[in-house]
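hey m, so remember when u said the tokens were messed up on ur end? i reran from scratch. heres the input so u can diff it against urs
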Amino acid sequence: MIAHLARFWLTFESPVNRAAYLKHGFALALLKYGGDALLVGTGTGAFWSPFDYMQSVPFLLDETFANAPGYLAPALAVWTMPFLWIGVTMSMRRALDAGWSAWAALLFFVPYANYGLMLTLAALPTSGRTSGLRVAPRPQEARLPSALLAIGAGSATGLGILILSVRLLNSYGLALFLGAPFVIGTVTGFLLCRRYPASLRETHEAVTMTMLLIGGVAFLLGTEGAVCLLMMLPLGIVLALMGGAMGRAIARLGTGTASHAAIVVLMLPSAAAWEAGTETVVLREVQSAIEIDATTEVVWNHVIAFSPLPEPTELLFRLGVAYPMRAEIEGKGVGAMRYCVFSTGRFVEPITRWEPGRRLSFDVIESPPPMKEWSFYEGVAPPHLEGYLVPRRGEFRLVALPNGRTRLEGSTWYEQRLRPEGYWVLFSDAIIRRIHLRVLEHIALLAE
């Protein structure tokens, strides 16, 4: 039973009529909702209503996820991935059953249009006809010409979307990080398999080559730096491989044309333009702590300002991620100005709470770029280095422990505007936590 359901949900083998689409769609929606509600309830204590899916992302982040634990967003993202794939595979087969083009399933990646797609497919009767090309791949076709065409077209598609989204629209949303890799994979897989009967392994090889080529060209042109490309690669490869499997299925079924692919590609810039400027500004907190063999009075003196740190040895910082170097302070008490000097510039931090031996709180009114991109060229500064990861305030808390020891806690509240948030916070939280520990360990060394 489970194996049969897995084949029906995850492959392109079986047709999907209206009754099956409704029945399985409703059951999967209940399963997805149950998992979402369990994760949100466990993480925040809040009730996740089915109507929350219709709310805007800013509302959800502000009202539901503002104080959520760090694992919640990544857990929701991982839980969503298989349902995304099932939705695409079933919608593609339902579109074919209704007489539509298989490419219509990619509307799944367009915000709000995906709801319209599912409702329409649930209402359309079986057509009894298929649209588009009715020519199956031919075994005598050579692999190399098809592979070169597929990789070239997929790379051109990806680079075009990247330049348009990043350089012209300054948009780092779902259209770029979710829609683009899937569409690149679909186009590559379709063009490879349209005439040559490539295996799934060959298709995935071509798609992987396409994604690596896009990343390599973007790096060589100075459009993006190495670190950001490496962070994007895991998500991009997974989505592109999913898209490649779909493109191969469209070609094998003989139900798609290159013109349909072009229409789908043109949808992404529209989605990116729609997303541009809609990023949320909800604060996210990262906490770290360390125990120090010194009294709170001694630790306090090294919290408000500390001497230069040694050069870092961690690969993370050597690749260009900003790291703290020293802290200085002008004045005393609330209103004093603290300066935390990083490798990329200084943070300007007016003190908002001054409790000697207990708590130091401050706002961040000026901050340098979060990293210096590693590239062959000087001064490579992708737009996401400005305004997409912004610290807003920080705090040190000192807790007296027995035997004259101190627990030193540090918190940073920051804004994350890259999407999908559940993926990017894995990196931003880890980086901020590593920065915290560098400072806390230095303070501990000085105090002890």
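this time it looks ok to me. The radius of gyration is 26 Å. if urs says something different then somethings off w ur setup not the seq
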